[in-house]
Amino acid sequence: MVGHRSENIVGKYDVLIIGGGVSGTALFYMLSRYTNIPKIALLEKEDKVAQVNSRGRNNSQTLHIGDIETNYSLEKAKVVKPAAMMIPFYVKKLHPDAQNKILFKVSKMILAVGRDEVAKLEKRYEEIKELYPDLQKLDRKEVGGVEPNITKGRRENEELLALYTLDGYAVDYEMLAASFISEVNKEGSNRSDLFLGYKVKKIKKVDKGYRVDTNKGVFEAVAVVVDADSYSLFFAKSLGYGKKFSLIPVAGSFYFSDKLLNGKVYTMQDKKLPFAAVHGDPDVQIPNKTRWGPTAKFFPVLESGKLSTSMDYFKSAGLFRYCTAKSFVKILSDYTRFKYLVKNA
């Protein structure tokens, strides 16, 4: 194990995971369940897991498998689909009460409007139909049959086409993360420890591993996995890694209306705005409402809505490198992107 100063050492571990979102808790579960690593720990700065991007209302709540994601190439879809379907396979092994809090069956639709989008979606369907045999192609009349509010009030001559499946899933990723922790606890093993309310301040490379300073003491580990979203680059750069990378922080928000849709309905994605496919869908936590979004706002923070993280953003963004400034200008001066960001400001 790592040898270093012993003052205020909370614990020594073989693997230390930083970040208790759905990805970090999944890794914690996998290492605890399927390896013989002697000592594993997960550090989370909040008092509960999954309170930032994995929180129930802070993401699209969609299980992305590539069928309605028009910015996925066929090659990418072939990789993403089996990986994403690991979630339903995992959830269906849980107790029914737990299943009903995590996974929700919902229809999914990708909608093309106008001649150009319809032509693109026709081509897309031919490319992916063998990979997604349950995907149906719907004309305007059929779209109105499953989602009446889409065709209601539209011009009769406006071309519509949709790809549709009844076999989609919505996911409460906050509850999924909590279930990973619950399953680790059921093992009753003393190999795996969860630390809530432990905020990492610094990671330092030492002779045989790493020293991790937190607000409640020091940890030592042979290996450290930083699974903390945008803070991952912040810590990577502090260790000398990833210095060529930069961040453009774009945060999305969602808004609610009365129930207008029966399932998830996505619009066609612009390749210049892969993060901004506006969609409407049922919310997994609020019944009888339709949730709309996301918007896309540029704001210099590492965590949406937390101005206190702006200083860390500037430390990790690499804004003062010539190639970074050049890239920002090129990306943000594109008319499509610029118009979208201004519209959402």
**CATH architecture tag of the domain at 1-61 and 172-243:** 3-Layer(bba) Sandwich
Arrangement of strands in the largest sheet:
4-5-3-12-13-14-11
* Helix segment tally: 12
Largest sheet: 7 strands, mixed
The overall strand count is 15
- The CATH H-level superfamily of the domain at 1-61 and 172-243 is FAD/NAD(P)-binding domain
Give a short overview:
With 345 residues, this protein is α/β, with parallel strands linked by helices.
Comma- or semicolon-separated keywords:
345 residues, alpha/beta, FAD/NAD(P)-binding domain, 7-stranded mixed β-sheet, 6-stranded mixed β-sheet, 15 strands, globular, EC 1.1.5.4, L-malate dehydrogenase (quinone) activity, malate dehydrogenase (quinone)
Structure description:
By secondary structure, this protein is an alpha/beta fold. Among the domains are: 1-61 and 172-243, FAD/NAD(P)-binding domain (3-Layer(bba) Sandwich); 296-345, no CATH class. It is built from 12 helices and 15 strands. It has helices spanning 22-34, 74-84, 86-91, 96-102, 115-128, 140-146, 148-151, 173-187, 231-238, 310-316, 322-333, 335-344; strands at residues 9-18, 40-44, 103-113, 136-138, 160-171, 192-196, 200-206, 209-214, 217-226, 250-251, 255-258, 264-267, 279-282, 289-293, 297-298. The chain has a 7-stranded mixed sheet with strand order 4-5-3-12-13-14-11. A 6-stranded mixed sheet has the order 6-2-1-9-8-7. Strand 7 and strand 8 (209-214) form a beta hairpin. The chain is globular.
